[in-house]
From TrEMBL:
Lineage, uppermost ranks: Bacteria, Pseudomonadati, Pseudomonadota, Gammaproteobacteria, Lysobacterales
Name assigned to this protein: Membrane-bound PQQ-dependent dehydrogenase, glucose/quinate/shikimate family
Family that this chain belongs to: Belongs to the bacterial PQQ dehydrogenase family.
Annotated organism of origin: Lysobacter zhanggongensis
Region (Disordered): 151-181, 286-317, 552-573, 677-696
InterPro entries the record matches: PQQ_b-propeller_rpt, PQQ_mDH, PQQ_rpt_dom, Quinoprotein_ADH-like_sf
Spans through the membrane: 12-36, 42-59, 66-82, 88-109, 121-141
Domain Pyrrolo-quinoline quinone repeat: 180-820
Keywords assigned by UniProt, alphabetized: Membrane, Oxidoreductase, Transmembrane, Transmembrane helix
Cofactor: pyrroloquinoline quinone
Top-rank taxon, per record: Bacteria
Length: 851
């Protein structure tokens, strides 16, 4: 069978193949030696030496090179099984390249001295090719899917229509069943619709019935993140740069638009407007026709603060007015939004004209009293919350620029007049207004995300962020330490905290609260309790009594590391809270979890891991070497929040599962690199949210590798999945099912889309919506798909490819007896999905006038 013979022809195949294998071996040997010095895996050094020798023998035309390569391959299979078990994704970088190279080695073997026959060589190559094809085919099988043996909760036969199920969008009134009246559908933020026309049995018949384009396409830092409202027969939404738009809910035709003219320089990290607020002025005495949101006048209107236009319609009627305390008011129904340049805008819901009785001709500058505010430093990216006639707003403060950035003050304004009712400046706890000449305290934690509220209790629940320098705490003041990364329940009548619950003590990881708290009523041994569910970036979920803030399930304070940079010593909290109800967090990372396309980039990630500081979730920041932050600041849960089906008693949570690779940079080094606040020199230097942020006024800047990606391939160092979606039993906190979320179709090495429908679990931003029809609607992932998931099984039962990324939360509504699903596909620069300006509506087949 084997014989030694000379082979005519060119020697270049064995030189080329042997050279590639030798180069691979040399790289692995050098890197493997380095990894061993760091205490890492022993595999790479001997494997690299063996491959180096095998490559040399192949170049010399000796069959021993092929046999030695086979030994390395077999040894690698054994090592991979020992390290990885049956974890599919771990086998890819360990064996993928070696199996691929084994195929030409088998084909070359008959041409080597002492090699097998050509038939034998080809047979071995065919077997290897089949093995590779089979392993590749396994990628199409979802990995990491878990289902509980616990029976899935069934819908209650008793009405769940309570304050917590559908909190009011105005005093005493809940959204109509077919409406979506606030960012989270209601201020309870359940994102649950009682509509059930679309089910798992018919969802595959969904079709696009209209598409609307906003015309707002930022050239950089795009990311609209918008969830429209639906009230009456009209949709209300904002574009990436705050253009307010009203659409016919049935056809998608534009009724009016109002452009507040936000300048490009005011875009912070992202040109994002997540949503708007709807408010109906309470009437006393006689009123003119009210809340005919679908009827608009013929006229157009402009003002000094923006530009409004309305569609031409034969159904024109005069603007509705109402009487409040004997005074006639325009804008009986109004849309209120916050802008990227720090304004609150109020326009008539029927016409798009500014409400002239609100603030200064329809607008309020929330930066008054903040002192110096540079463009982009103070922005409102989330929908305001209106409780008992008070507009409550926080704002985004551009992270990482200055320790003493503008204040994170929370403000309350009269929803009719725009007059400030109160301001909560945590450094002045006994005061709710400024004295002449004063400014709000700079550098305090802010609320950049969306609040939820209980209209009856008069409480608004604020997910608070951190002080402006997220990763350095030495100069923080006691109130900042107390309220940062806390849920604060504020009394809307006084503007003072009723209670607060902190999820991180002395946060130096940017683990600010991004998700809304979701209001539900839960059953306890003492009876039904008005509660809320609070998700966090660490993955922990807390269930609190929303009247008092007391946990309804256990919270354990566990010891954590307390080291870090020298100026931070003594400031680290020795304990951190952990929820005993539920967590989305996975186990701690090990070197074995490092990943890559090939053994080389996996080895590089192993070297980085072995050389970094990592002591679990609360690893202290360091300056002498990188530290691993896991999960990273994208969560766990982020601004998309969770959805709760109160009839079934099920929480739906999508989440991220990625580390960050961080290092603090001493001030002198940061200055040498030219890192400066945006208003001085930074401009678009550095990256987003922590990559090259100066943190001026502290001893350290911060460099964050978000997602921990290698610069050459762009792949993440941690193995997949990078995101998931989970169903959780509300009553017990038990996982009902959990699965990776997102495919590889728009993801791949070097930024090249693979177009493969492999469920790999991608990063995701944006939340879910659930319906009484038993479906979860969600986009969020980086594969540019919108999906319907069967809430009972976790299986995707429908999907559609979108023309742009959809890092936004969908909404569901009904009009004319037909149920609609709407998603904003605006793309996202940070998530690297393509920019768009599409608002897309889906419905089951039927009569429609779609555009």
């Amino acid at each position: 069978m084997f014989r030694e013979r000379a082979h005519p022809g060119s020697h270049w195949p064995r030189w080329l193949l042997g050279g590639v294998i030798a180069l691979l071996g040399l790289t692995l040997a050098i890197g493997g030696g380095w990894l061993l010095t760091l205490g890492g895996s022993w595999y790479y050094l001997p494997a690299g030496i063996a491959l180096l020798v095998a490559g040399g023998l192949l170049m010399l035309g000796r069959i021993g090179g092929a046999w030695l390569y086979a030994v390395v391959l077999l040894a690698t299979i054994g090592w991979a099984a020992w390290e990885s078990g049956l974890d599919y994704w771990r086998w890819i970088p360990r064996l993928g390249l070696l199996v691929v190279l084994a195929i030409p080695v088998a084909l070359l073997a008959p041409r080597l001295r002492g090699g097998p026959s050509r038939k034998t060589g080809w047979g071995m190559a065919a077997v290897l090719a089949l093995v590779f094809a089979g392993v590749f085919a396994l990628a199409f099988v979802p990995h990491g899917v878990t289902r509980s043996a616990t029976p899935f909760p069934q819908p209650s036969t008793v009405s769940q229509r309570t304050t917590s199920d559908d909190a009011a969008t105005q005093p005493g009134v809940a959204p109509a069943p077919g409406d979506w009246g606030a960012y989270g559908r209601s201020h309870a933020a359940t994102r649950f619709s009682p509509l059930d026309q679309i089910t798992a049995d018919n969802v595959d018949r969904l079709e696009r019935v209209w598409t609307y384009r906003t015309g707002d396409l930022p050239e950089k830092r795009w990311g609209a993140e918008t969830t429209p409202l639906k009230v009456g027969d009209t949709l209300y939404l904002c574009s990436a740069r705050n253009i307010l738009i009203a659409l016919d809910a049935r056809t998608g035709d534009e009724r009016w638009r109002y452009d507040p003219r936000v300048a490009e320089e005011n875009i912070p990290y992202t040109a994002a407007c997540r949503g708007v607020a709807y408010y109906q002025v309470p009437a006393s005495g006689s009123t003119a026709p009210a809340d005919d949101a679908g009827e608009v006048p013929e006229a157009s209107a402009t003002s000094g603060v923006g530009e409004s236009s309305t569609a031409d319609t034969s159904a024109a009627r005069d603007t509705a007015v109402a009487t409040l305390d004997g005074v006639r008011r325009d804008c009986a129904t109004r849309i209120i939004e916050g802008t990227l340049d720090g304004r609150l805008i109020a326009v008539d819901a029927r016409t798009g004209r500014p409400c002239t009785d609100f603030g200064d001709n329809g607008q309020i500058d929330i930066t008054r009293g903040m002192g110096e505010v540079s463009p982009g430093m103070v922005s409102i990216t989330s929908a305001p919350t209106i409780v008992q006639g008070v507009i409550v707003t926080g704002h985004q403060v551009l992270d990482g620029q200055r320790r003493m950035a503008p204040s994170g003050v929370i403000q309350g304004f009269d929803a009719v007049t725009g007059q400030q009712r109160w301001a909560w400046d945590m450094m002045r706890p006994d005061r709710t207004a400024l004295a002449p000449g004063e400014t709000y305290t700079r550098g305090t934690p802010n609320m950049w995300t969306t609040a939820s509220a209980d209209e009856e209790l008069g409480l608004v629940y604020l997910p608070m962020g951190n002080a402006a320098a997220d990763y350095v705490s030495a100069s923080r003041r006691p109130p900042e330490m107390e309220y940062s990364t806390s849920l604060v329940a504020l009394d809307v009548t006084t503007g003072r905290p009723a209670w607060h619950f902190q999820t991180v003590h002395n946060d130096v990881w940017d683990y600010d609260l991004g998700s809304q708290a979701t209001l539900v009523d839960v059953s306890t041994a003492a009876g039904t309790v008005p509660a809320l569910v609070l998700p966090t970036k660490q993955g922990d979920m807390y269930v609190l009594d929303r009247r008092t803030g007391q946990p309804l399930h256990g919270v354990e304070e566990r010891p954590v590391p307390t080291g870090g940079v020298p100026t931070e010593e003594g400031l680290r909290s020795p304990i951190q809270p952990y929820s005993q109800y539920h967590t989305l967090a996975k186990r701690e990372l090990t070197e074995r979890d490092m990943w890559g396309l090939t053994p080389i980039d996996q080895m590089i990630c192993r070297i980085q891991f072995a050389g970094a500081s990592y002591e679990g979730m609360y690893t202290p920041p360091t300056t002498d070497r990188h530290w691993v932050e896991y999960p990273g600041y994208n969560g766990g849960s982020d601004w998309g929040g969770i959805a709760i089906d109160p009839q079934r008693g099920v929480i739906i949570a999508n989440y991220n599962d990625m580390p960050n690779y961080n290092i603090l940079v001493p001030r002198e080094e940061a200055d040498r690199r030219g890192w400066a606040p945006r208003d001085e020199a930074r401009g678009d230097m550095g990256g987003a949210e922590g990559a090259g942020d100066p943190q001026a006024g502290t001893p350290y800047a911060i460099d964050v590798n978000a997602g921990w990606r290698l610069p050459f391939t762009g792949l993440l160092c941690k193995e997949p999945p990078y995101g998931g979606i989970r169903a959780i039993d509300l009553a017990t906190g038990e996982t009902l099912w959990d699965r990776p979320f997102g495919t590889a179709r728009k993801n791949g090495p070097f930024g090249i889309p693979s177009y493969l429908p492999i469920v790999i679990g991608t990063p995701n931003n944006g939340g879910p919506a659930v319906t009484a029809g038993g479906l979860v609607f969600i986009a969020a992932a980086t594969d540019d798909l919108i999906r319907a998931i069967d809430i009972e099984t976790g299986e995707t039962v429908w999907s559609d490819a979108l023309p742009a990324g959809a890092q936004a939360t969908p909404m569901v509504y009904e009009t004319g007896g037909r149920q609609y699903l709407v998603i904003m596909a605006g793309g996202h620069h940070f998530m690297e999905t393509p920019v768009g300006d599409y608002v897309i509506a889906y419905a089951l087949p039927g009569d429609h006038d779609g555009g």
